[in-house]
Amino acid sequence: MPDYNKLLTPGNIDEGWINAIVDIPEGSSLKIEYDRQHGIFMLDRVEPAIFPKPVNYGFIPGTKDADGDELDVLLYCHEPIPTGVLVVSKIIGILNFEDDREMDYKIVCVPADDRNTGDSINTLDDLGKRISFCSLQRFQKAGNNKGTRMGRCYRSKEDYPRMY
Q: pTM higher than 0.90 for the full model?
């Protein structure tokens, strides 16, 4: 398995696109994590089946968040994307969760070439009913057993926090 952090760049965040590697497909109740030391994906745990992932979950190679891991992505697509797949993605917003007073940013994106939607999703508002912030918050709480709350929602590039 390749070391994504050595092979890939984060993309061009300033131009609005990133390289995203999928950890967990949408609909899965498996908590899969990329183990950088061994260069493999590992099953961390099995979550209760009532908490399937509401979106494809992944990371941006070559980045680091405050917790020392790569920046997280929430990747919206009309179907699940398998673990380990590289998706050139368009950033449409950033969500900030707070876990026991620790900031946890999620980069929200869609495939850069999405012919199913005609590349019509360019902002969080374009997701319309496809996104449920409540389901995202439940997903975050189920995954960490901490006091998680939804923080700020960054909807425009000019508003994004500098995290990299």
A: no
